[in-house]
Amino acid sequence: MNAQHFTLGARQIRAQFLTPTAVRITHAAPGQPLPPDRPWLSHILLPQPEIAAEAAQLTVDVEQLNLRIASRASRFTFHEAEPPRFGREAGKIPRGLAADIAAFEVRVENDQVADGVSLAWKIEPNEGFYGWGEWFNTFRRERGVFKLKTRDAIAILQHKETYSAIPVFYSSRGYGVFLLNSHPSQWAIEPERGALTVDAAGPNADYVFIYGPSFKEILRTYTALTGRPPLPPRWAFGLMVTGYPQEPQAVVEERAQEHRRRNLPLDAVILDYHWEERYHNFQWRKSLIPNPQSLIANLKTNGIKLGLITTPFQNAKARPAQKWVLQKLAGNRPRNLENDDERNLPAYAEGQAKGYFAHADAKWWFGSGGMIDFTNPEAARWFTAMMRPRYEEGVAFFKNDDGEYLPMNAHSYLGLSGREHHNLYGFFYSRALFEDMAELDDRRPFVYARSVWAGSQRFPAIFLGDQHPEFEHIQRTIRAGLNMSLLGFAYWTADVFGLDGKTTPETHIRYAQWALLNPIARYFWRPPGADDTRFPWSHGPQNEENFRTYTNLRYQLLPYYYALAWEAHLTGIPPLRPMLLEFQDEARFASEATQLMFGPSLLMAPVLEAGATQRVIKLPADTWHDFWSMHTYTGGGEIVYAAPLERLPLLVRGGSIIPFGPVLQHIPEPHQFNELELHCYPPYPATFRLYDDDGRTRAYQRGEFSTTDIQVTGDGGQVKVVVEKAQGTFPADSELRRITVVLHRAAAPRHLQLNGQLFSAWEHSTQTQTLRASFECPLTQTTELEVES
Length: 789
Prior knowledge:
With 789 residues, the protein is α+β, with helices and mostly antiparallel strands. 20% of the residues lie in helices and 31% in strands. A hairpin with a 2-residue loop joins strand 22 and strand 23 (367-372). Helix 3 runs parallel beside helix 4 (292-301) and helix 7 crosses helix 9.
């Protein structure tokens, strides 16, 4: 790699160019050589091609004894505010109280260490910052102190804690920084002092600086360095559900049938903790699941996949007092299992003897025991081998929970201390499950995690922790999702209705409108005796119809989702994204975290207040069309949008094509985009690239996919729609697509031509101002539809 070296007194500095716009800065302690890379670094940073010196778009030098980075193409400069401090000279992280609900304890935490480091960077007045992981309490930061240390951030802790503490941030000035230090750290944004500082509880003084200046360019570069999300299996874009706590097999099957009877789509059921007889032997608890083969087969008959939850422990202790208290508080155990022995002593003894645990007595919700050291390839294989029989039976995936509990006095195969390993744990945990699934066959692995770190977007799905069905929790999950999207996480979910808590008719409707359109959609039901308000049909026909409407919309938008998934795979740009990612030049969106973009074309503004039937929406400087009505708005200001209870505020950007597929009860295998409605919104031109593949395997990574470019040009008097012939090597299951073009805000036409011939299979509605024209479109030919008004 192209590198520069500097010596400042007793200090050595290396500037290593990773890409033309990314440079890694490594500081040595005074009088010491440059430190070696941390043992985990090669697992996070991906190899990059060598770049020539002249390709670098940044310059690095020293100015007044501090480092300076500048752009060759602009007047941008970035300065370290002071030399790094090491060891005893480094800033100390204050002691603090930590409430660990699952461990059933409150403890004093002390991250004051002898080998810490401190870094400081100069900041400008009014500079804003984004990122640092999955934060529920804020989106843009301009001042304040906060700590990066992964927690089980249950709802009452989300004002200051996070499940995923990731030391990556973006600045409103157009740069990003990735601190290559996984230890717990305290950050301070101090505009009065003109500095952003970090005190980390361990080495190294090492970071990657990325220049955009657009956030999309920062994100492209960051994900080129740490990885981009693979495509999930296509069924994962459907609706999932988890019963909490686990109910008997017959109840699970009946609930799935209820979805089908009510025409409510469903693609996956995830069984909660107590599917398993011991933690974790991966053996069915026959008192709840007496015939798992029948369960899998019956779900498969209805097009439904089965997923299972796991945690990274081998239990050695039961902790009955803790279980009793948590059952009283959370109702998290099925009835009549209070006295079951869930310890897995044989596996615990084996793991302990072979050194497979990062800690031998880690506490979690349902006991304590050995926490697997996934940095040890042998330990990871030992753990995932126990899952293999379930895959062979037909289980589709595992949801990997509870990766936040690694104690500070743990260790690792890589030689990491517990402090260094703690925040990283979720990365290695997800990777182990993902890579094991990839070894089984050519199917796309799907891992669904709660705690992650930089690079975990490669594995690729996360859920945003435990919420309640309250308006404040809708707002929290929007912030958390947007924060994670800026770090390349394309597939996240705010669980519909949250984990637990009773819905009201209003929160049931509003939460569903928001969360059913997340990149991943899942809801939780509870046993009716504990809570009968969390089913789609709870609260009566209006609520059921609302749930059906937005679930159907999700399935209809599958071609749009899938094209956005392909974009994320190629570029790192996520499907759901902050307004500022799409409209960074409009300062009004710098702090906006109550509305967001669904791809480049759909603006979503969930209702966030009880009793509200309207909300204010900031419109970017474009033409915007109401998704539900004939209203068209000129952007650049604010509107008061009418949002009766049944309506999610949703607008379409002018100059867009939104492809719709059919309403489905589940996403079948195979399923290709051979039946489409192309909804076109003026003003034109508008373009869209449809992406398709087999939806199941990793053949797309070997080049087996197809793309179809679609364009709309013209004005109100004459409009042309062109569907290009499909490009690529993917062998489609049909030579024809059935296309319906829907032109919105369209005047009544005088005539239409299809490929130069008069065409009569169309209809126009004066009431809705839409023109619909349906035709068959050969995949191997370009098709042109011309409309003259």
